[in-house]
Write a structure and sequence with these properties.
It is a single chain. Helix content is 4%, strand content 41%. By secondary structure, the protein is mainly beta. It has a single domain, classed as Methylamine Dehydrogenase, Chain H (7 Propeller). The strands form nine sheets. It has a five-stranded antiparallel sheet, with no helix packed on it. A hairpin with a 2-residue loop joins strand 32 and strand 33. The longest helix is centred in the first third of the chain and has 9 residues. The two termini are 30 Å apart.
């Protein structure tokens, strides 16, 4: 996958960054969210006895133990300092995904009744204007976004408060034709928006994907995996039922789905705290027909929150604070970051549950409240920022938005000062290892 998807969701009406620990749409695992209906599944092929080679280019075998913590090297600190786009600026711009060529980050600038979207580089210099969207009654803000070489997609939430995630429009900007258009809106039932989680767009070369709330015939919710085709503007439903996480993988889309035999599942926090039983399904992107799910990929049973892939490695995080990975050569899932109950160092370091994992080469970036990076070559990780922050990745480029300092919030003006960084991860050295082999 060559797209970037925003790791940030600003809760509307508040000038603060919040990383959401909820499912991407339609339902929220382990938080009492709605559960959709069952759908047909494709059998999983039995694994073979082939040995699983290590992931690391450097020879460190992953998954055998928890990664070790290391201080951020001086070269990384210098790169962070030298890659600042703006420093200690009041929050008149909401920023998100970087472009894969490193020209800047997506920014939103609000007026009374509209929001202007553009790509801005150092010192807020605009390199690309996307256009304006209506902002009725002076409310609303984008939540999640994605960018690649050809397109930028973002979700604009039109309201504030508890129902902010229900009131959304999905916009797509064609970077070649310089055209901004609305491609989807929250479906309605009886004139009311269907309740669901935050919508997160994902781009590929030919398609735009997202999960949205779907029709509910069970009384406890529904969701569906959607595809928009750039060639003809066609939108179709690839899966209708329970789906909480997905990622493009080669010519297919992998996603979590309600397990076979669970059509009569009914949520109960007392008897089923883990949520509905799920499996991994796959469909062919072009035809929309079912495909054989990969052997050994356990994102469904794990209750994946967010899945990402670089076309080889597939990574997902779960509600218990774990991060898992799979690749075809292994034919099994390994644990990159253990659940917090099995990782004493997490409490010692004060780590929050990893959210919004993002891949760039052999670096995995995640955000529990501030940002961290795991080096898959050395199986070591370091803290990128100490302030509350969020991250986005596109290709080699990492964007970081963080509070400027501990006193960055202006209570009277309800605004925050932010630092924005855009850093080329491919130009940085490996993190120090821990002497493991």
């Amino acid at each position: 996958m060559r797209a970037a998807t925003s790791g940030k969701s600003r809760l509307l009406g508040l000038l603060a960054i919040t990383v959401l620990a909820v499912g991407i749409s339609g339902c929220s695992r382990r938080h009492g969210g709605p559960r959709p209906v069952a759908a047909a599944t494709t059998p999983v092929v039995a694994p073979t006895s082939r040995p699983a080679p290590p992931l690391s280019d450097g020879g460190v075998s992953l998954g055998a133990q928890a990664p070790c913590y290391t201080s951020l090297p001086a070269s990384w600190r210098a790169a962070l300092h030298g890659s600042a786009l703006w420093v200690d600026q009041w929050d008149h711009l909401s920023s998100g995904a970087p472009t894969p060529e490193g020209s800047g980050v997506l920014v939103e600038q609000d007026t009374a009744n509209s929001a202007t979207f553009s790509i801005a580089g150092r010192d807020h210099r605009v390199t690309e204007v996307l256009g304006q969207v209506p902002r009725p009654n002076g409310q609303g803000q984008y939540s999640y976004d994605a960018a690649d070489a050809d397109h930028v997609a973002f979700v604009f939430n039109r309201s504030q408060g508890d129902d902010a995630s229900y009131q959304w429009d999905l916009y797509l900007y064609d970077r070649q034709d310089h055209r901004l258009s609305a491609v989807a809106h929250n479906p309605t039932a009886g004139g009311k928006p269907l309740p669901g989680g935050w919508v997160q767009p994902v781009l590929t070369h030919d398609y735009l994907y997202w999960i949205q709330a779907g029709p509910d015939d069970k009384g406890w919710g529904g969701s569906q995996l959607m595809q928009y085709r750039f060639a003809d503007g066609r939108t179709r439903v690839l899966y209708r039922g329970l789906t909480e996480a997905f990622t493009p993988y080669g010519s297919e889309i992998l996603f979590t789905a309600l397990a076979p035999g669970a059509a009569n599942y009914s949520p109960s926090s007392a008897t089923d705290p883990a949520g509905a039983p799920e499996v991994v399904q796959a469909v062919d992107q072009a035809s929309g027909q079912p495909a054989t799910p990969p052997v050994g990929l356990t994102a469904g049973p794990d209750g994946a929150n967010t899945m990402v892939s670089d076309g080889d490695l597939v990574v997902w995080n779960t509600w218990d604070g774990a991060v898992h990975a799979w690749r075809a050569g292994w034919q099994k899932t390994i644990t990159l970051i253990p659940s917090f109950s099995n990782w004493p160092e997490a409490a010692k370091l004060g780590l929050g549950a990893p959210a919004m994992p993002r891949l760039s080469g052999h670096f995995l970036v995640w955000n529990p409240s501030s940002d961290y990076v795991l080096d898959l070559r050395t199986d070591s990780f370091a803290q990128l920022t100490s302030q509350t922050s969020t991250e986005d990745v596109s290709g080699n480029w990492l964007s970081l938005e963080s509070y400027a300092d501990a006193h960055a919030y202006d209570q009277a003006q309800r605004r925050i000062r932010f630092d924005e960084t855009l850093m080329n991860l491919s130009a940085l050295p490996d993190l120090p290892g821990c002497g493991r082999t």
